[in-house]
Amino acid sequence: MQYEFLKAFPKRMKNVGLYALLFLNSSQKAIWKQYGFDELANQLNMIFAVLLYVMEQSLKEEPCTIDDISAFIDSINSHYFHKSMTYEDCHELGDYIINNILSNEGKPMFFRGYDFENISWQPLHISYVANRIVYFDQDVRRTSYYLTDDGYSLLLGTLEVESNMKLTIQEMIFKMHLERQSYDKALDDIKNVFNLMRIQLQKIQEAMSRIRRNVLDYNVADYEKLLHEDLDTITQTRDKFKGYRENVQARVRELETAQIDARTLASDEEEKLKNLREIEIYLGRAIDEHQKILNRHFDLKSLYTDELEKISEMSLVRRFNLRTDLFDKILENPDSLYHIDAFLHPLFNRDIDRILNLNKVFEVQKAAAADEDEDSTEEVDFDEEAWKEEQDRLKKAKLRKYENSMKALLRPAMRNNKVRLSAIGAGLSDEGERAQLIPEINIFKEIMVELLRAREIDIGALRKERADFIQEESDDFRLNDMLLKILDENPEWKNVSKLTVKKIPGAEPVMFEKVRDEAGNMRTIRCSDVMITTVRYEMRGE
Fold first, then answer.
1. Which range, 44-58, 279-293, 462-476, has the best average confidence (pLDDT)?
2. Which of 21, 71, 233, 527 has its CA 20 to 30 A from that of 3?
3. Chain segment 458-502, per-residue pLDDT in tens
């Protein structure tokens, strides 16, 4: 390569793309001006404030729904931005920031970087936030958002430096502020240190998850880099933070003693005491996080070694046909039975998983509970496997309802390329077709909400994303996954390239009477009329 400084150029462009796509998605949008955010600086400040809130919730492992984000926007707007926005406006803006700007309306985002070593353009996938389903009170289903690795890189890149120096520099700054008794700044520093350690732990957990899914998909270079980061974190934290905690505890005792002697402390001394106590708490949490990283570090090494050994063992497996290689040979020469152990020995060359402890056999077995109330005791036989199978069956049955409902919506659209929801409702000939379209109110409502939120679905982009990235199978309803599954199962629909769903302005609402809800009650639902349109690839002759 002629210019050595151009090595790893796509990696640099990935960091550039994190900002470029964010600016592209947020610029020249009328919704910003609608709420008074005319300048680009105002818009970006609000976006990054929301990103920091999502990161804070992710680090605390707490749910982060659209309602939580709306409440956060409403709070900072009333205290700082002072825009004339109602709570409904904040909810709409939060939904716009999460689903349009950060999620690109559900469509995958790519930024191209030129690879000077391979002389080619390299597509760089970018994703700021991801979501998962959470349940409140065991039955209320909500979508919670959390930051991806790209989201963390974006935010940490606005404040910190290279990853291998972040913890060292942050610890040095914390030490300096602690020595200067700037306890308010030291508190912010130790919070950042704790966040960096939590992110390191999450990296280990994500790496272990990738290794479990497919060890060959995990790069050795990534594994080596992660191990070095773990060792740096382990060697830099425990002893130093123990010393810091002892120092802080001594200063807390001094201030508490002064408070007892003087009855009351000055306001600045009380603030120092409060900050020192919080610093002590975070130092304890950082030490605990150090222990978790240490344990996970060895778990990661053990898991990676075991998975690689399993892969290598597969290449050594030799298969035999029992009919031709064993039975026929014995029939030809029965004396070979004397040496059958040589053939079967590889089946028994592994160590057994459990070891029988003979001492336990001769111990007196004690009853787990007293026998006085035998007559009043009811014996309950709980079959965990049967319960899990029943739960899986119920989830699959519910997913089938989602699938049948989507098929009933798509079928007229595929047939005519464009159809209104009112026309679909008018075309239902019997109760069976109505039950297929609307098996339950909540199911139909969730499908329509997801379709209207997506607005335009690029089928080709979804197929590319599915081919490029491994995703875990889910028992929950996911619009994109369900749509691809339905299209794959119907060969005549495979040439569909786009699906758009839009509300029809000024149209009369569509009424569906005698629709069953989850409790089995019959209700009437009223929904906006929408237009469902399909676009197909042009079929070219050979």
1. 44-58
2. 21
3. 888 888 777 765 555 556 777 888 888 888 888 888 788 888 888
Q: Which of 21-30, 93-102, 312-321, 450-459 has the lowest mean pLDDT?
A: 312-321
- Distance between first and last Cα of the chain: 43
**Domain residue ranges of the chain, discontinuous segments joined by +:** 4-156, 163-313, 396-536
Closest CA to 197 of 221, 223, 168, 225: 168
Residue with the bigger pLDDT between 414 and 159: it is: 414
Nearest residue to 236 via CA among 303, 174, 300, 318: 174
Q: What is the mean pLDDT of residues 140-155?
A: 85
Distance from C-alpha of 336 to C-alpha of 333, rounded to nearest angstrom: 6
What is the secondary structure of 41-58 as a DSSP string? HHHHHHHHHHHHHHHHHH
Neighbour tally for 93: CB within 10 Å: 24
Using only C-alpha atoms, the chain has a radius of gyration, in whole angstroms, of 31
d(CA 217, CA 220): 9
Round to whole Å and give the CA distance between 458 and 499.
7
Does residue 212 or residue 266 have the better pLDDT?
A: 212
For the residues of 196-260, what is the DSSP string, one character each?
Answer: HHHHHHHHHHHHHHHHHH-GGGS-HHHHHHHHHHHHHHHHHHHHHHHHHHHHHHHHHHHHHHHHH
Q: DSSP secondary structure string, 430-450?
A: SHHHHHHH-SSHHHHHHHHHH
